[in-house]
Amino acid sequence: TDQHPKIWVSEIIREKALENLREEVPHSIAVEVEKMEKRKDKDIIEMLLTIVLRENRLFFAIL
């Protein structure tokens, strides 16, 4: 794909939230990837995400 990895990740997270939370999550949510960083000591990518729900912002850190 030609998309930037942050855009690709944000679309996957949004899709999975809509699939798994069903009616509890409005389709107007957006996911902003604030930070993506590969850890040097492990095969792990740390991410800091902001999930925007209309005017409210929910903050999640995925480590």
From TrEMBL:
Output this protein's name. Uncharacterized protein
GO molecular function term, any single one: RNA binding
Q: Which InterPro entries match?
A: KH_dom-like_a/b, KH_sf_prok-type
Q: Which organism is it from?
A: marine sediment metagenome
Gene3D superfamilies in the record, alphabetically?
Answer: 3.30.300.20
